[in-house]
Design a protein that fits this description.
The complex is a heterodimer of chains A (about 650) and B (about 500).
Chain A: H1 3-23, H2 28-55, E1 61-62, E2 71-72, H3 74-97, H4 109-123, H5 128-146, H6 153-184, H7 189-202, H8 204-222, H9 227-238, H10 241-266, H11 271-296, H12 301-328, H13 333-366, H14 377-380, H15 382-396, H16 402-415, H17 424-450, H18 465-483, H19 486-495, H20 506-510, H21 525-551, H22 578-583, H23 596-602, H24 612-626, H25 633-653
Antiparallel strand pairs in A: 1-2
Helix pairs in contact in A: 1-2, 1-4, 2-3, 2-4, 3-4, 3-10, 3-13, 3-18, 3-19, 4-5, 4-10, 5-6, 6-7, 6-8, 6-9, 7-8, 8-10, 9-10, 9-12, 10-12, 10-13, 11-12, 11-17, 12-13, 12-16, 12-17, 13-15, 13-16, 13-18, 13-19, 15-17, 15-18, 16-17, 16-18
Chain B: H1 3-28, H2 32-57, E1 62-66, E2 78-82, H3 84-107, H4 121-139, H5 144-162, H6 168-199, H7 212-229, H8 238-241, H9 247-256, H10 258-270, H11 279-301, H12 306-329, H13 334-365, H14 381-395, H15 401-415, H16 419-447, H17 463-487
Antiparallel strand pairs in B: 1-2
Helix pairs in contact in B: 1-2, 1-4, 2-3, 2-4, 3-4, 3-9, 3-13, 3-17, 4-5, 5-6, 6-7, 7-10, 9-13, 10-12, 11-12, 11-16, 12-13, 12-15, 12-16, 13-14, 13-15, 13-17, 14-16, 14-17, 15-16, 15-17
Classes of the chains: A mainly alpha (about 650), B mainly alpha (about 500).
């Protein structure tokens, strides 16, 4: 069973699952379990094929016959890993979550399974035409998922925005593919890869517009500023939470896959990589500041997380762009930047999905996303609180969680090579700044939702077991991938093997280490460092706790002589970062789609009534002519005399 | 090919041409149910014959010529011509025609809330079958003169069918259609005259013998007639008004067949080998097509009546076909031509489906205004899905129909390394995005959300109509693949 067969079997199971779950719409629980079981089997198959491709040193697997469009190389496998892993969690979570919508699930599970199929298909094809097909298929299925709760008009509007911008991104990619096709007369990616240097030489303008189109197209999908603002903040809250987790955690990463495929794999390292790397990293840096700033003033929990997605994608773009630029200038920091970007991609998919799932849990129990109406949920929902806290710390970049490793790599790799790129340290500083903003924003999120006194009316337990398990597993993944950072780094190293020539050896990049024993040769310093940090953190916290324990004293809160019920002492989320909101314009307006009535007035003129004046003129003229038929014999004789006179005149003139 | 096979094909063609007219005459005297059944049978037989012809003729080129007009000095004035382009047109017309005839039995009945009809079916099927015959005649015409005769016949049939309901608006609409397309026909006639005088023949290949300036004049005259027939600017007024016709007629004439006659004419002219039209003609046609598409797009965004919406969308898509053909004329890759011809097939099927779905809506609810519709998805589920599929098919969403033709045309446009190519490609992508998004919004407005109270009881739709809708929806996936095989044959020398 080679990787390709597993892949195709996984796809087949997803299709079968979609058909089955479409029929079982009425039995929600059964449908959910059916979707979970089938989807997980398929995802596990995809996972195995991905891991198999990553670890083997054989050539990339490709399908045969009609399936020859599929092509699983190491870069694809990395993304396939993320897709299948998060999908399993999302499916598990959906089983109970969907019930609170009280709608037929035949509009949900089939599209969810097909969505997973679409995303997996996007990363595992070698034919650009098939890529485009899967890309649009992914958009289509996710669109139906976004508008699942179609009773609310704002969800429909969010869906249209998402549809429009996704389609536009597909259009940009389509134009770029068309340009490449005309040059190479083939849709195969490897042939296009070979033709790129030729195009670079002969048609530099087309070459750069090609790359620009790819960047814009994939950038729109990845949600980078400013494109992300147009659709992300509306689409991610509108979708059901497990779908938001997939959208934010996985789908926007396919945009990065596109960028990596075109700029890293297809494009050989050259000064062009430097230029475009600079552009990409600049876009990333702007995005991470603007996205996080916009997140600070949100009070809708999912909208807040959506803006954070824009911000964190900025980190990824920063890493990828800096990596491209530095690699083309032969700096070893390029590897670290690239690693940082891709590791952040990996980590972000874990902790962002977890954050969305926790927001979904809150929504499930409380029925609202608005942070000002929440509070004190930590006691009623301890496990959700714990996982949300873990994810918040991870996104903030706190050791020993995974966010720290990737952010550290990014800052480290961009701040040092200042001589090559003067602006990189500025981006690094921006990255640190945004980290701080992220922690602040997460403080608002976790604080408003979970901390404080428990409200009286919250008499529920934590969310159902399946939802809890998915959250716990993701939280555990945050911790494990943070401490044992070697694991994802090793995967990333393997996935880049085919994209970069002369990749230095694993030990050179990730470090040599003290060997414990000859048998454990693979364990390097990268394994030990995080554990040392974890150890020191544990020691420090124990010491502090001992100090504080004795010093704690309980007292009443002084409010200037006013008697206030303690329960009303909540720090309203609207008050957070008030000064920032006053000072900084982070209210980027989203472009509304025009309404039908407004355009109706515009279009009355073209179309049918253009000729009205002409027709009326014609009518009037003909009416006048009609008057010549008066019915009197004398008029007719007069006309005849007139006609005769004209004819005689003409004959005389033209004789 | 053996003589016997040729005779078979010849007989096939004669039957193909004669049967619809005979059927029309037969159904003229029938009423209601009898008319439905007989018309359905005739159109089915014609469709089957068309398939047999396609299978027998394959991708060959065959010509049969007979008759002459000695006083004009031209030999072989009538005949049949079978080539891939003719076969494509024939298949599309008879395929959609059959479904439209069956659908008419459902639509033209008392159950229709918008236009309850009790009589006139004999007259209706007479004109419909005559139209079908005229379309067959157009497809298999051997020269421009014969083409013109059937071209005019389609105009008359369209006029009669638009007038079917005999309301003042319908009469006015039919008259507008007649006058506007007749302006185009006048130009066609002038072009014929030029051809007869300068080339002494009406053959499609006779264009080669013309001098470049005469050739240009001829092309422009025929192009104007194609514009008139295809409702491009400045002739665009007749198509939205023609929506007064019964919806199956709108589906057939004004989406799938009659408007395609004009572009079929251009395709015939352009695919004549060694015709060597000047490249500036391609520039003219493409720029005009772009302008027309833009105009229609603005009107499309503002339409409230669902049939007018689809009418403006048809104008845009006719512009697409003209764009594809003209880009090739300017020197683009053959894919532009292939895309344009494929778009004829794809658009006919998808727009036909959309119109039939719109007809179901107006049948069931009695209104065509989008602002009055809402929440129909629960009562008309099959219609909702078919409409969505049709919307995706027309909008160019893979794997549905128009994606393939649009993609081919984009490829062709980009292969022209000049500003017109890039403008066309960018415009095509933008237009697809805008219209697809707008269509999706319309779909939502109509089918989802709250059901409006003023809609009253929504009538149930008989099973066979749902089957037709599902079948056509599936066809929008299958047909482009078949069509791709067909159009790959077109490797024409300019």
């Amino acid at each position: 069973m080679n990787g390709m067969e597993l892949l195709l079997q996984g796809f087949g199971i997803l299709v079968v699952g979609a058909i089955i779950t479409a029929l079982l719409g009425k039995w929600h629980r059964l449908n959910g379990w059916m979707a979970f079981v089938l989807g997980s089997i398929a995802s596990v198959l995809l996972l195995i094929s991905a891991i198999g491709t990553l670890t083997s040193s054989a050539m990339p697997t490709k399908g045969s016959g009609i399936f020859s469009i599929f092509f699983l190389d190491k870069l694809s496998s990395f993304f396939l890993l993320i897709i299948s892993g998060i999908s399993i969690m999302s499916l598990l979570y959906s089983i109970r979550y969907i019930e609170h919508y009280r709608k037929s699930t035949s509009l949900y599970y089939p599209f969810l399974l097909l969505f997973i199929l679409g995303m997996s298909g996007v990363v595992s094809v070698r034919n650009m035409f098939a890529f485009l097909l899967f890309w649009e298929f992914m958009t289509l299925t996710s669109y139906f998922l976004v508008i699942y709760e179609s009773e609310k008009p704002e969800n429909l509007l969010a869906g249209f925005r998402y549809f429009f911008w996704s389609f536009l991104s597909a259009g940009c990619v389509e134009l770029a593919i068309a340009l490449l096709y005309i040059q190479t007369n083939s849709f195969d990616m490897s042939i296009m890869k070979g033709a790129i240097p030729v195009i670079q030489e002969k048609h530099p303008f087309m070459f750069h517009s090609l790359l620009a189109l790819f960047l814009i197209g994939f950038g729109i999908k990845a949600g980078i500023f400013p494109f992300g603002n147009f659709w992300l903040p509306d689409a991610h809250p509108a979708a059901p939470s497990p779908v938001s987790a997939l959208l934010s955690g996985v789908m926007i990463k396919t945009g990065v896959y596109g960028i990596l495929r075109t700029f890293l794999w297809m494009l050989p390292l050259s000064p062009a990589s430097n230029i475009w790397g600079t552009v990409i990293s600049a876009m990333g840096a702007i995005s991470l500041v603007m996205g996080t700033l916009s997140a600070l003033e949100q009070t809708d929990s999912k909208r807040l997380l959506a803006f954070h997605s824009i911000g964190q994608m900025g980190y990824i773009f920063l890493g990828v762009g800096a990596g491209l630029a530095l690699l083309s200038l032969n700096s070893p920091f390029g590897y670290f930047a690239l690693f940082g970007g891709m590791l952040h991609l990996f980590n972000h998919s874990i902790f962002k999905s977890l954050l969305f799932l926790s927001a979904g849990s809150i929504l499930y129990r409380k029925g609202t996303r608005e942070l000002s109406q929440l509070g004190g949920l930590a006691s009623s929902m301890p496990l959700t609180f714990l996982s949300a806290l873990t994810a918040s710390l991870a996104i903030g970049g706190i050791p020993p969680l995974n966010g720290f490793v990737s952010k550290w790599l990014l800052v480290f790799s961009t701040s040092i090579p200042a001589r090559l790129h003067y602006e990189f340290p500025i981006w690094a500083i921006a990255g640190i700044f945004a980290s701080g903003l992220t922690i602040a924003s997460m403080l608002k999120y976790v604080g408003s939702a979970f901390m404080g006194l428990k409200k009286e009316e919250d008499n529920f337990n934590d969310v159902p077991l399946t939802m809890q398990i998915s959250q716990i597993l993701l939280a555990a993944a945050c911790l494990i991938t943070g401490v044992v950072a070697v694991l994802p780094l090793g995967i990333i190293y393997n996935s880049l093997r085919e994209s970069i020539m002369n990749l230095p050896s694993y030990e050179q990049l990730i470090g040599m280490g003290i060997e414990i024993a000859p048998k454990l040769k693979g364990l390097t310093i990268a394994l030990w460092n995080p554990m040392l940090i974890l150890l020191s953190l544990i020691v420090l916290s124990v010491i502090f706790y001992e100090f504080i324990r004795g010093a704690k004293k309980e007292t009443t809160i002084w409010l200037g002589g006013v008697l206030v019920d303690r329960r009303n002492l909540v720090y309203d989320p609207h008050s957070y970062f008030f000064t920032l909101r006053r000072g900084i314009w982070s209210n980027i307006p989203s472009i509304p789609l025009p309404r039908i009535e407004r355009l109706g007035r515009l279009s009355v003129a073209p179309g049918e009534d253009v000729y009205e004046p002409l027709i009326r003129l014609g009518h009037r003229f003909i009416e006048r002519l009609r008057k010549s038929h008066s019915g009197l014999l004398q008029t007719y004789i007069l006309w005849q005399m007139l006609g005769l006179a004209i004819v005689i005149l003409l004959i005389y003139v033209f004789k | 090919m053996t003589n016997g096979e040729l005779v078979n094909i010849y007989l096939l063609l004669v039957f193909l041409l004669a049967l619809p007219f005979i059927g029309g005459l037969v159904t003229l005297g029938l009423k209601r149910r009898d008319a439905d059944v007989v018309a359905g049978l005739f159109s089915l037989v014609v469709f089957v014959l068309a398939i047999i012809l396609a299978l027998k003729a394959g991708t060959r080129e065959l010509t049969f010529a007979f008759g002459s007009l000695p006083w004009l000095g031209i030999q072989e004035i009538f005949g049949f011509r079978v080539d891939p382009l003719a076969v494509i047109m024939l298949l599309v017309t008879t395929f959609v025609g059959f479904f439209v005839v069956v659908y008419s039995s459902f639509y033209l009945s008392e159950g229709n809330r918008e236009h309850p009809t009790t009589n006139g079916k004999g007259r209706y099927y007479f004109w419909l079958l005559f139209f079908l015959g005229a379309m067959v005649g157009v497809s298999i015409s051997q020269n421009f003169f014969q083409f013109f005769i059937f071209f005019e016949l389609t105009t008359i049939c369209s006029f009669a069918l638009i007038d079917f309901y005999e309301t003042p608006r319908a009469l006015r609409a039919g008259f507008t259609a007649l006058i506007t397309t007749s302006l185009g026909s006048l130009c066609f006639l002038a072009g014929l005259a030029i051809l007869a005088v300068y080339a002494r023949s009406f053959d499609f290949e006779a264009v080669r013998d013309l001098s470049p300036s005469i050739k240009t004049a001829f092309f422009i005259l025929l192009w104007i007639s194609a514009l008139a027939k295809g409702a491009q600017v400045p002739f665009q007024i007749w198509l939205p008004q023609a929506m007064e016709a019964p919806t199956p007629i709108s589906a057939y004439l004004h989406a799938a067949s009659m408007v395609k006659v004009g572009v079929f004419l251009i395709a015939r002219m352009v695919t004549t080998p060694y015709a060597s039209y000047p490249e500036s003609l391609g520039v003219l046609v493409s720029l005009w097509a772009l302008f027309s598409m833009l105009f229609a797009l603005l009107a499309f965004l503002g339409a409230d009546d669902i049939k007018k919406l689809l009418a403006y969308s048809t104008i845009i898509h006719i512009g697409y076909i003209l764009l594809g053909l003209s880009l090739w004329l300017m020197g683009a890759d053959i894919k532009a031509l292939q895309g344009g011809i494929l778009h004829i097939i794809n658009h006919s099927v998808s727009k036909g489906l959309l119109f039939l779905c719109a007809g179901v809506i107006s049948y069931a609810t009695g209104t065509r205004k989008i602002s009055e519709l809402g929440g129909l998805g629960t009562k008309l589920p099959v219609n909702a899905i078919a409409f969505t599929v049709g919307v995706f098919a027309v909008g160019g969403f893979p794997p549905f129909a128009c994606f393939f033709s649009k993609f081919y045309m984009v490829l062709g446009a980009i292969s022209l390394h000049n500003w017109i190519g890039i403008l066309s490609a960018v415009f095509m992508v933008l237009e697809s995005t805008i219209s697809l998004t707008w269509y999706t919004m319309i779909t939502h407005r109509i089918f989802m959300g709250e059901e409006r109270a003023n809609l009253g009881n929504i009538k149930p739709i008989p099973l066979y109509i749902n089957i037709i809708l599902v079948f056509l929806a599936l066809a929008t996936i299958v047909v482009p693949q078949l069509g791709l095989e067909f159009v790959k044959v077109f490797e024409v020398i300019r």
